[in-house]
Amino acid sequence: MTSSNSPVPASDDADRFFTTAEAAEQLGLSIGSVKLMVDRGELAAWKTAGGHRRISAQSLAAWRERSARGGAGMRMRILLVEDDAPTRRLFERKLAQWNFELDLLTVGDGIEALMKLPQWQPDLLVTDLVMPHLDGFAMLRRLREAREYDRVDLVVITGLDAATVAERGGLPPDALLLHKPLAWDRLHGFIEARISARLRRL
User: Fold this and answer.
1) CATH classification of 10-68, choosing from 1.10.1660.10, 3.20.20.70, 1.40.20.10, 1.10.760.10?
2) What pLDDT, in 10s, does the model give residues 166-191?
3) Which residues, at least 6 apart from 56, have a Cβ–Cβ distance to it below 8 Å?
């Protein structure tokens, strides 16, 4: 079942429905990713008279089951670490426009990112460097010290120049460094290449 503007289904009393934010929390995804999954028909949903999505609990359970069986194994998981909320929303919109098979989780600082890593297990981590609490430099050092995350691809997006980045300890040698303002076509090409590489390994 795909999303629609139809009234609440007659079976509503036999099924529970979640808001987009609740569904995102249930699945451990960003709200933007859940909206994209509804639009693609990957999650069954309907819309209220005010245009708000209501997502079927049965659909969430089915998605989890497919994921556990490897049915979502071809999807790329991206963790975005960025303290600026408008930048996070812009990133979500861009990824939705590119129509890649991926799931996105966004967090606001390095501490939250390290806490989410075991649960989220991202294929790609995209991070800013200047952030509160734990900056990108320290977070990346801790990540690369943990051998279980060796295969996580890294993209660093920063307004710092290359000399300043080097003075502050540099980056892991395998990290792709992109400067602000971001050239979105470069990020698009990198993600596309990594998805192609993953598909060849499956």
Assistant:
1) 1.10.1660.10
2) 999 999 999 999 999 999 999 999 99
3) 1, 15, 16, 17, 43, 44, 45
